[in-house]
Amino acid sequence: MVVKMENNQTGHIPEAKKKVTAVRELIEELNYIKLNKTIMLQEVIFFDAVIAIIESKYIQKEKDQIKDTYWDGGEDLPLLPEDCEEYYNQTYGKHE
Q1: What are the domain boundaries of the chain?
Q2: Euclidean distance between the first and final Cα of the chain, in Å?
Q3: Is 47 in contact with 41 (CB distance < 8 Å)?
């Protein structure tokens, strides 16, 4: 992401300030478990397979959803926090 710097130059957001999506956070947590909690080779192979599935199917889907939401936000801005909850429930269904 390009940002405007104080001296009127453009630059990129430093890695430390970037947000982490839920899917990327899940992958990080699974990698942590794989590296620190697994004992048997089968467990490592299982975690590698799960992480590969998530990376191949769900990262792009999440990215597309974020981009669509960003684009749609310019058309119909929510006025109240409840509007966001209502949008989520209508779009994705109510999940507890």
Answers
A1: 15-92
A2: 33
A3: no
9-47 confidence digits (pLDDT tens): 555 556 666 778 899 999 999 999 999 999 999 999 999
Q: 34-85 pLDDT, tens per residue?
A: 999 999 999 999 999 999 999 999 988 988 888 888 777 766 677 777 887 7
Other Cβ atoms closer than 10 A to 92:
9
Distance CA 52, CA 95 (A): 26
C-beta of residue 7 within 8 angstroms of C-beta of residue 17 = no
* Nearest residue to 31 via CA among 49, 9, 58: 49
* Mean pLDDT of all residues in 87-91: 76
Largest CA distance in the chain: 54
Sign of the CA dihedral with 41 first, then 44, 48, and 49 last: positive
What b/e sequence results for 8-28 when a residue is b if at least 16 CB atoms lie within 10 Å of its CB, and e otherwise? eeeeeeeeeeeeeeebbeebe
